[in-house]
Specification:
Number of domains: 2
Shape: elongated
Strand content: 5-15%
CATH class of the largest domain: Alpha Beta
CATH superfamily of the largest domain: Resolvase, N-terminal catalytic domain
Order of helices and strands: EHEHEHHEHHHH
Number of helices: 8
Helix content: 40-55%
Low-confidence stretches: none
Number of strands: 4
Mean pLDDT: 86
């Protein structure tokens, strides 16, 4: 039997140190700790797939909380059953002792674990929807205040029209015009359309 751990944060700017600290207290070899910095909406995660390839019957997998496994109600349950029934591994959710498949191996224990798993996976997906809703609301409020997203718009020099005329008369090449204006080709053609010149 080998012991593994799985850590997930939703993006590269999120910090995994809280999960890592909890896992390191269990003395799991570093090579057996798998981590993804990716959304929990599905299980198409590179390191999670690598973990699945090394897990063998009788192994033990630790995760800090069920939402670190995923945030999709049905997929969490399907994945849980795949790990425990098909692969034959045990799972221990550190934050939720009721979700430790090493215990409660009888029918009542399995029933209780299934109920807890359904509730927590529902909560995980609900939180994912709430996060997306809050993000959309925040973006909407910011746009209403005039806050722009993305890269700042490239400024066009005052002599842009005269440079365009020179380019059209083949006085300069397109590359020379782009270099003089400090803009990309797509920005140049977009500005031509916008200014109708």
């Amino acid at each position: 039997m080998k012991t593994y751990a799985y850590i997930r944060v939703s993006s590269f700017d999120q910090n995994e140190s809280r999960q890592l600290r909890a896992i390191q207290e269990l003395d799991i070899p570093q090579v057996n700790i798998y981590m993804d910095k990716q959304s929990g909406k599905d299980f198409k995660r590179a390191n999670y797939k690598r973990l699945l390839r090394v897990l063998r019957k009788g192994d033990l997998l630790y995760i800090l909380s069920i939402d670190r496994l995923g945030r999709n109600y049905k997929e969490i349950q399907n994945q849980w059953r795949y790990l425990t029934s098909e692969l034959g591994i045990d799972i221990c959710v550190i934050d939720m002792p009721l979700l430790d498949t090493r215990r409660y191996k009888d029918l009542l224990g399995t029933f209780i674990s299934d109920i807890v798993l359904q509730i927590l996976s529902f909560v995980a997906e609900s939180e994912r929807h709430n996060i997306r809703k809050r993000q959309a609301q925040g973006i909407s409020v910011a746009k209403a205040k005039g806050i722009r997203f993305g890269r700042p718009e490239a400024k066009i020099p005052k002599n842009f029209i005269s440079l365009v005329k020179r380019w059209r008369n083949q006085g300069i090449t397109l590359e020379e015009l782009l270099k003089a204006c400090h803009i990309s080709k797509s920005t140049f053609y977009r500005r031509l359309r916008e200014m109708n010149i």
